[in-house]
Design goal:
By secondary structure, the chain is α+β, with helices and mostly antiparallel strands. Helix content is about 25%, strand content about 35%. The chain is globular and about 60 Å long.
Length: about 375
């Protein structure tokens, strides 16, 4: 079948064959979902939402859905060994399995992407209960990561069929101001960035909106390259990193070694007040990378006027960068597991559409200090 884009005949412009409404949820395969859910609720401020497991008729796993504003995580663990979920955790440790994308037509999304060369992960499947139906489908992407297409326009239940409402009346969590997924970054192997860029262009209709080479992202010791892929409407962004030659081991090489393959490096979570959010997260035990205080000596000369006071930014280690549309504030957590793999970015955008290019050197030097402490540089 032809993969020529459909066009609007009135204006003769390409139409988006895969209109994505945003990130529906991020699913993590973890060794103990009950404890992982407690961690994200306690440390990151999520609220209990829904549970699926043997008690709800799902015999092979336990899944806890947690939510904060428009941000939904699902923590899943197998309840028995010798299955793909258990194998995934044994190979990779805890990590992201599914980047689930909200669509209006999950069947159409699967047909469009598989016709363009995607390997099917889940054929269109309709899940039903008394609250309506959810249609799901899915495709493979880099490593063992998958994209699920979620169509829930005909569902009014708490999360999806197979789940029941889940709460603990004696355990109340307060949110930390996290709003939604800003972007998700994947680490791929040597010379695999461009093939995956082409995959997102050809299979999903994404565009390469930013490119960073080893001149942009390098320190004295290591380097990497990155390209940012964006859906047609801009609602979903997936930067893709690959290693570049350097004197020592880059953070991407360290990730690939400890994750045992390609996968999601970090999920960027948006906030409307990064100072309040980071201060709250720190008080709950979330650890962040620190840059030298000298980073702030010429900050305002580099980025110009910002609305925030400099002292709280300096105190918390929050980074600032500007592009031609505004500025952003960002901070990166340390890895949230014992393997130096998955971490989180907290980001507040004040008009900026970019990803903090001006902070790369300071950030990656901070990461290298952590690598050195682990003996992995």
């Amino acid at each position: 079948m032809s993969t020529i884009p459909k066009t609007d005949t009135k204006q003769n412009i390409p139409t988006d064959f895969l209109p994505l409404e945003g990130t529906d949820y991020v699913e993590f395969y973890v060794g103990n979902a009950k404890q992982a859910a407690h961690f994200y609720m306690t440390a990151f401020g999520f609220h209990a939402l829904a549970y699926a497991g043997p008690e709800t008729g799902v015999k092979d796993r336990a899944s806890y859905a947690i939510r904060q504003h428009k941000l939904t995580f699902v923590l899943t663990t197998p309840v028995r060994p010798n299955n793909p979920m258990a194998d995934h955790i044994y190979k990779h440790g805890d990590g992201v399995k599914a980047l689930s994308l909200r669509v209006n037509d999950a069947t159409g999304a699967w047909e469009e992407t598989t016709q363009r060369g995607a390997k099917s992960y889940m054929e269109p499947t309709t899940l039903k209960d008394n609250d309506g139906e959810v249609v799901m489908s899915g495709i493979h992407t880099y490593g063992d990561t998958v994209h699920l297409f979620i169509e829930r326009k005909n569902y009014k239940g708490v999360f999806m069929p197979g789940y029941r409402e889940w709460s603990n009346p004696h355990f109340k969590t307060t949110d930390t101001g996290l709003q939604y997924v800003d972007h998700c970054v994947g680490n791929v192997d040597w010379n695999q960035m461009n093939p995956w860029v082409k995959f997102y262009e050809d299979v999903m209709g994404f565009k390469n909106i930013l490119t960073f080479d080893d001149e942009d992202i390098s320190t004295e010791y290591s380097a990497l390259m990155s390209k940012v892929m964006s859906s047609g409407n801009g609602f979903v962004k997936f930067p893709i990193n690959e290693p570049a030659e350097g004197k020592k081991k880059s953070q991407v090489e360290e990730y690939l070694e400890f994750y045992n393959g390609e996968g999601v490096q970090h999920v960027a979570l948006a906030t409307k007040d990064i100072v309040a959010t980071v201060r709250d997260l720190m008080s709950r035990g979330v650890e962040f990378l620190k840059v030298p205080t000298s980073y702030y000596d010429d900050l305002l000369e580099r980025v110009g006027h910002i609305d925030e006071d400099l002292e709280p930014l300096k105190e918390l280690g929050i980074l600032v960068d500007r592009d031609h549309e505004g500025y952003l504030l960002q901070l990166f957590s340390k890895p949230v597991e014992d393997r130096p793999t998955l971490f989180f970015e907290i980001i507040q955008r004040k008009g900026a559409k970019s990803f903090g290019k001006g902070n790369f050197k300071a950030l990656f030097e901070a990461i290298e200090r952590e690598q050195e402490a682990r003996g992995n540089l």
